[in-house]
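Progress report, Aim 2. The chain analyzed during this reporting quarter is listed below.
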Amino acid sequence: MFKLLLIINPGSTSTKIGVFEDEKELFEETLRHTNEELKKYDKIVDQFQFRKDVILKVLKEKNFDIKNLDAVVGRGGMLKPVEGGTYAVNDEMIKDLKIGVQGPHASNLGGILAKAIGDELSIPSFIVDPVVTDELDEVARLSGAPELPRVSKFHALNQKAVAKRFAKETGKKYEDLNLVIVHMGGGVSVGAHKNGRVVDVNNTLDGDGPFSPERAGSVPVGALIKMCFSGKYSEEEVYSKIVGKGGFVGYLNTNDVKGTVDKMKEGDKECEKIYKAFLYQITKAIGEMSAALNGKVDQIILTGGIAYSDTLIPDLISNVSWISPVKVYPGEDELLALAQGGLRVLNGEEKAKEYK
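Predicted structure tokens for the chain:
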């Protein structure tokens, strides 16, 4: 018998939902929320009832009977660091999502909404591979400054999903593979996947690693310290230079990679310079993660929205194919990835993990 799942992925100004029959998407909707609607709420968590009502209203308008659902899966939020996998939403998780133990974020509403709807229907609720997934080896955690350990925050949901997709397509187990996976979107994360664990990855949320459309990447630390104490900028302004206004935005005042490539092809030298640096930094990061795997890389996988580029991808493959074969999975099917995580538990392929 097939399983019906409701998937909930909250964003800052929208809530994306989907209904899946096993891995087949029956429909999806992006529910937009205006500033007028959201400014009524002091904190993100206060938006819970509003977003829940909007979700149920749309499902009703589509004549979908929620009583037929087998589970509800929400996007994981800023919880305590956890290993990857599918987690049953419990009271301890709800408490931490409401607090936002690693910061406020719209994704914190994913588990809260999933459990509320699931409990009303007496069906299970889950989250899958949250952004705080942390499987770092201890050697990767040490930064050199005892007060500043390296932190794992990255595109865990999509990286894990494409890793398992590749394993399934090749008739292998994710746990038996060594992979370097590159997610390229508003941020760029490059992860070393060793036998089912992401043993090293850049902290994408805070702008570490290669620069990207909106993030500065790893910057010269001494110069950053001087900037912080120059008296010219507030803490918020400095952080925005690293996350939000860094990378392509900082150099070219745009986060449009395709547009930058188009201008480069038309002869724009500044765009060409930034493009080449972007390509260089991702290439270098892939080499770094390959070294973290002692050069034993079964596959390099390129994914995320920028993986649709018919210029960057061939250039990147040309740069790194000497390390291992390269596979491209463009885009980020987050709703499907969440559904697959829930299905693995419902079908008995995995056991739901407990958040403590």
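The CA atoms of residues 260 and 268 lie 9 Å apart. Residues 269-292 form the longest helix (24 residues). These observations will guide the mutagenesis work planned for the next reporting period.
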